[in-house]
Structures are given as C-alpha cells and as structure tokens.
Amino acid sequence: MLQLRDAQPVAVRREDYAAPAWWIDTVDLTFDLDPAKTRVLNRMRMRRNTDVPVQPLRLDGDELNLARVLVNGQGASFRMEGDQLVIDALPDAFELEIFTTCCPAKNTKLMGLFVSEDTFFTQCEAEGFRRITYFLDRPDVMASYQVMLRANRSAYPVLLSNGNLVEQGDLPEGRHYAKWVDPFKKPSYLFALVAGKLVAREQRIKARNGKEHLLQVYVRSGDLDKTEHAMNSLIHSIAWDEARFGLPLDLDRFMIVATSDFNMGAMENKGLNIFNTKYVLANQATATDADYSNIESVVGHEYFHNWSGDRVTCRDWFQLSLKEGLTVFRDQEFSQDLCADASARAVKRIEDVRVLRTSQFPEDAGPMAHPVRPDSYIEISNFYTVTIYEKGAEVVRMMQTLVGRKGFARGITLYFERHDGHAVTCDDFAQAIADANPESELAALLPQFKRWYSQAGTPRVATQGHYDAVARTYTLNFTQSCAPTPGQSIKEPFVIPVTLGLLAQDGQELTLHLAGDEDADAVRSHTLVLTQQHESVTFNGIDSEPVPSILRGFSAPVRLDFEYTDAQLLTLLANDPDPFNRWEAGQRLALRSAISLITSGADVVGTTTLNDAFVDAMRGVLRNPTLDSAFKELVLTLPSETYIAEQLEVVDPQRVHAVREAMRAQLATALFSDWEWAYEQNQDTGAYNPDPLSAGRRALAGLALVNLCLAARASGDSVWPGKTLQRFKDAGNMTDRFNALNALVSSGHALAQQALARFHAIFKNEALVIDKWFSLQAGSPDRGGNVLALVKQLMKHPDFSLKNPNRARSVIFSYCSANPGAFHRADAAGYVWWSDRVIELDAINPQVAARLARALDRWSKLAEPYRSAAREAIARIAARPDLSKDTQEVVTRALAG
C-alpha cells in the first residue's frame, strides 16, 4: 500500500530555540537483545526545568512499539501526538518507566539500533536514540547513564556500552549480561551499544599522570591482523591531545568497534567509538597509502571528540560546527604535527584545501548553501556537510592565525574550563578564544569575525597591484565581496586574514617594509587582516616591480582574484617558498589553459592545449631534486573537472571532460621520457611503510604509470602497458597494485580486463578491496559511452548490495558524483538512472539517498540539453508522494535554486 506523504515538513529554526521544559538526571536502560524483537526498559529520573513555563512532557519516538508507561511505579495516562509520547499533569520530580520493543533486523535506515552481519550496533547522532526508546532526544539534555545488556551468550559473547564495565555474569538458558556505567553525563546522541561475536586488539598505556588505560579495537575474527595501524593511530592521538592541548584521556578504557554497515565514517560515542570498517582495517596487502592516512585522521578525529564534542557538546544542532569544525581542525593539526618535515605538512595542507575548493566552494555557490551555523533545517542529517566540517575548520584556523598557536592553546584551555559538562554554542567557543587573548585582533574584531558563522557563501577578494618606480613602493589594493545565497541577499564585510609576501622577478623573496610602520621588524611574510570592503597595503624599498605571493598557506577560505601574468605564475611555481602558493601557481596556469580552450569553441581533437612554457615548467618540477615526490604529484595533477566547471558561468560537462583529457594526453606524451625517469626513480620504496616520504614516492610512481599508459595508448605502444600489468602482478602492497590497475583502467587499455578479473579473484573475500574494484570501474573514463551500461552490470554483480552504504557508494556515487564525463550524457540516460537510484535508496536508507540526491545540486549552471534534462530528473524525484523528508528537502531546495 502506498504511504502518502504527510503535510509539508516544518522547518526547525535557530531563532525558535527554547530550553527543555524537563531535565533528565539519570537513565537506567535494560536491553534484552533479539534481532526480531528487542525489549528496552527505560527508567529515568526527571525533574521540571523551573526556568521554563509549565508544559506537558513530550518524548520523541520513531518506529517503536510502546508496551508500558509508569510514573513513580503507577500506570500513567498518556497520549500520542504524531511520533511523540505526551504526558500531562506530572509532579516536579518523578521516576518515569517506559517499556518498548523494536525490530533491529528490519532497520535498513541504520539509525537507532540495527543488526549488521549478526551483530547489534547503534547510531544515534543526530536523532537516532528516539528509535530505541521514547526520550528527550536533543543535545542539550545531558544525563548519567547506566546500561544493562542481556543476550544469548553463544550468539553475542561481547556486550559493550559507554563507560566502565562494572558487572557481568551468566543468566539461565544460555544467556549472559553486562552492566556498564558511564561516569560522565552525556546527551542521548552519544549513547552506544554493541553486541556480537567480536575479537579485540588490546593495548594498555600509561598517561602522563601515571594512570593506566585499556585501549581496545574490536573487529570480526578474520580482521584482527588489520587493526595495528588503527591502534597506533589511537595511541598517537591520545598522546598528541595531551601534549598539544593538555587534554588527557578521561576513561579507564577506550573502545573502537568496526562495522561494514554504517551511514557515516565513524561516530564518537563516549568511550565506545563505532567506525565504518573503511576507517579501521588496514594492512599493506589490502589498504592503500590513502587508506592509512584516512584511518589515522578519522581515528584522531573521533578521539578528539572525547573533549570537543563529548565533554563539551552542542546546545542545539545549529551549533554542529562547534564540535565538527573544531574537531576537523584538530585532526588536521594532528596529521600535520605527525609529519616529520615542513614539506609533508605542506602536502597535507594542500590536500585539505583541495577538498574544500572542490566540494565546499560548490556547495557555497549552490542551492544547499548555508552558513557554518545554519538558520534552519528540515532534516538535520542533511547538514552534516562540507560547510559545517571543512569550512568550519577553516574558521577555527583563522582564529588560530589571529591569536597565534600559543594563544589558541590558551583559548582551548579556557573553553574547557568554562564549559566542561555543558551544552554550548559557537558564540561560547569564539568568546573563550578571544577572552584568553584580550590584546589580539580576534578580541578586537570578534563581533565582525562571527559573520563567518552567520553568512553563507565564499567571499571573493579581488586584488590589484601597483608599482611606483619613483617612490620605490608597491601597493596591493583589496576589495572583498560575497555573492547572494539562498535567503541572504546582502553580505557584510568579513574578517579575512591574508598572508602574503613578495618575490623579485628572479624569484628571490623580498624583505617587507610596511609603509606607516617603519619601526616594525623586517619580515618576509605578512598577514594583513581585511575588515572593510576596500583596503590597501603599501611596501617601501622595492627596487623593481615584484611578483606578489598572496593568500599564503590558504590563510582564509576565499576566492582570490588577481590578474597574474603567465610569467608571474611561472616565477611563483619555480621559486615561491610558500608550498601552497607554489602549487596554486601551477593550478592557475593549467586552469587558464583549460578555460581558454573550453570557451574558444575550437576543436579539441589534435589541439595543443598547453603552451611550451607550462610543459617546460612541469618538467622542471618533475626533475627538481629538492622537491618531495608527494609535492610533485600534487603539482603535476591537473585541476579536477569539477573544479574547472566551477570557474565557468555555463558548463558543458562533455567539453570540460574532453579538454581536460586532451591536457592529460599532452602532458603524458610531451613528458614521456620524464615520466619514465620519475617512475624508475620512485618505484622502489623498500619494505612497506605508510610514512609521508614513502607514500609520496609511491604516489608519484603511480602518476607516472598513468601517464606512460596514456602515452602508450596514443602511440599504440604496448611496452608500458605490459610493464604495468607485470607491476600489478608483482606488487608487494595494495598501493602499488592498485596504482598499476588504475593506470590500465584509466588509459582504457585492453589489459585492464585481465587485471580486473585477477584483482577480483585475489580479493573476493575482502569487502573493502572489492569496494575499490567497483569504484574504479564506475569512475572510469567514458571513451565509448559505455560506462553507464557497465554500472548497470555492476549492480547485478553477486557482490553488490544496495543495502550496504559502502557498496552503494562504490558504484552509484562513483558514477553519479565522481565521474562527470560519464554521468552527464546528452541523451539524459545518466540523469534518469540517477533518479531511479535516489528513489530506490530512499525507501531503504533516506540518509544515503539524500546524499546521492545532491549529485545535481549545480544543475542550473549546465548548458542545454543537460540543464533541462537534469531539472526534469530532479522534479521526477520531488513529485514522489512517499519521499522521505531527508531527500525531499534536498530536491526541493535544488529546484528552487
């Protein structure tokens, strides 16, 4: 029977926030775990919030079977209003008992309590706890939890929850129990339980204060050999957080559990982190260098939440970046601090900025644009976005820039001293950083700085340089602006730290002498803090017109407009001591060539897209003995099709794809001997080690193989494809093996099919490796227009399951979101297939469906016939009467945009 959609979902607005009418002091939960019918007994001690007018108690619930409600041990009168359980005429303090049942085995949404491969897991952020029991399911209600888990011992020998294990034992009929007590108050979204057949890697560590802690990483029995890196990452995270910010591990034990069915990457439940297997399991045979890096970052991220998210949490979900933006910044700093040298730190920074500019900048310019602290939402799950996370991290980074590294550490200390154990706001965080640094620019500019939280969109900083030969001065004039976004037509000036330097024409870095500040020490890099729409800065003692190096280290999340000449960019590329701007110069040169050809209308086939100066500059980077391999790989990787498209007013995806492919082919052919040299220099990295130096060499060798196979395809030569297949067969680690496979697949060589078959045969029992196998094919170049047909075949493969989010992402997202050249078809077949998948997924897992629905966020920029066809596909989804509010919000906003 078709379920009709309810009335239009009502938006939740930040301005409507009101404190809860009731507080929950203690929660005593008893679970009798059964996949078909889990029984949950919830006893709560509650009291009225005397600061709020008297109101009925309204408890949230979702897909629960309610069996009993008792107040102080007596039957209570209640009513249901939608999904809420409402109780009137309650005393000021009382004990409430609620008994419910649910069916975890049928929970395909993977929110609340669900079963994955015969193991119980929970996911409660943001509003999943209401799918376990009726509750005040909001982050500002913090309570003390005691949890009793009961289950069949043979089926579920491991019973875990938050906090400390205080009691365990046997029960009749082959059952057993475990009792857990969390010593810290927490909101319901941080609750977790796990029950199943698991094994653990254990490590005891001693903190600086001499206290011992037990660390455990739980996985399925066959995966224990893949947990060493995750454990080491956890140990490094604990040590770093205490050394950098003075924040110690506060629990007797800390647990990580991995599951293959998970909507998110990981979840920071207090003391019991639940992870997608993708961010736990690794050994050199099954995981790439990128996997190792991601595991280190995500393990760090979730552990750092123990303070920035758990000990101090969000007052409401509009403050989500309070924990996520801050913690992304912390995990970025962690990964950089683990790097042995400045070059590796720079590579990490460039990688982070590349994610921001290819994912968050388009979001800022699209229909889903929202501030770092949103003003409203219909479904909070839709706001776990790159704006909240990555842009939020950049806002925190700017705070550190304005107060300094030591000042920021003081601010963090004050923040936790003030707010430990409370649910607070982004304003509280910013105020603590400013108050700890009263003489800083942040303190002076705090009200204006907080516009980063309230205004959506990516600011543009237009810059012009003027050299006065007579006065020997150089002046930079800055103009900042920000385009309108949905619901925000007028933007006030931001506080924008712009770090800059000057280079002479020969590439030498100049000493800076600011006009009007002659007493200041001479420096080679200066941070100008923009606060007005128009500002300028002048430097004295400049003997000839310099080359400005602006926005060093990407000091603010803005678009920089400066009319560099090719010669100036080549100077920066060859000489800038700031690695980010050196990389950026190469990207600008490549982007300039791409846009010129795209907009010219010229035939791409047989066209020389890159001039000799650029090719020579790339050769110079590749051959430069002073540059790290990892940095070379970044410079020699062309801007993505997505990033190129974002620079255009109207986008023809097929032309963008064709131009970029032509650029790749030219670089492959023109630098053929250089690629051969680079491969030979970097192919042997010795015994496997995922450290930045070794990983960088493997990355450059992999890029070299891709280019050598591309060049061979153009020339008809079979030597390098043959060598690449042999490399694939002989590889001693997954990075080298997968790089070789990627080179064959991306070049479209006939040997790719042989390698793909062999790869599947070797790794058919390794789910995460097979995800890579699916993803590589779904993301392959569409030279014959056959990738959509291939994707349809992949979905029929015995190893494919739509219900597993990782597998769905490996095929559907790889095609729709990461393969624009194949997805944007003139016949609209890609869009039709996408709309079918969104609708199909929405009935199973609305969160995953809503994320897939965002693949056409930027449809209004498309040229015809893509534009009309994309809009029609979105409208087809929006017209569904049974659509979840998750997906409905996304497609409704897309159509409005």
Task: Provide keyphrases for this structure.
897 residues; five-stranded mixed sheet; Immunoglobulin-like; disordered N terminus; Neutral Protease, domain 2; globular; alpha+beta
What does this 3D model show about the protein?
Among the domains are: 12-282, Immunoglobulin-like, CATH 2.60.40; 315-452, Orthogonal Bundle (Neutral Protease, domain 2), CATH 1.10.390.10; 460-556, Aminopeptidase N, middle-beta domain (Immunoglobulin-like). With 897 residues, it is α+β, with helices and mostly antiparallel strands. α17 packs antiparallel against α18 (719-730), α25 runs parallel beside α27 (866-878) and α26 runs parallel beside α28 (885-896). The protein has 28 helices and 31 strands. The model is unreliable at 1-6 (pLDDT under 50). The radius of gyration is 28 Å and the shape is globular. An 8-stranded mixed beta sheet has the order 6-5-9-3-2-12-15-14, with no helix packed on it. A 5-stranded mixed beta sheet has the order 17-18-19-21-20, with helices on one face. Strands 29-26-25-31 form a 4-stranded mixed beta sheet, with no helix packed on it. It is 41% helix and 20% strand.
CATH class of the domain at 12-282: Mainly Beta
By DSSP (H or I, 4+ residues per run), the number of helices equals: 28
Q: Give the % helix.
A: 40-55%
Strand residue content = 15-25%
Sheet with most strands? 8 strands, mixed
**CATH architecture group name of the domain at 12-282:** Sandwich
The average pLDDT score comes to 96
Uncertain regions spanning at least 5 consecutive residues: 1-6
N- to C-terminal separation? 33 Å
CATH topology description of the domain at 12-282: Immunoglobulin-like
The strand order across the widest sheet is 6-5-9-3-2-12-15-14
Looking at the structure, what is the overall shape?
Answer: globular
Coarse structural class: alpha+beta
Strands, count? 31
Q: Indicate the radius of gyration in whole angstroms.
A: 28 Å
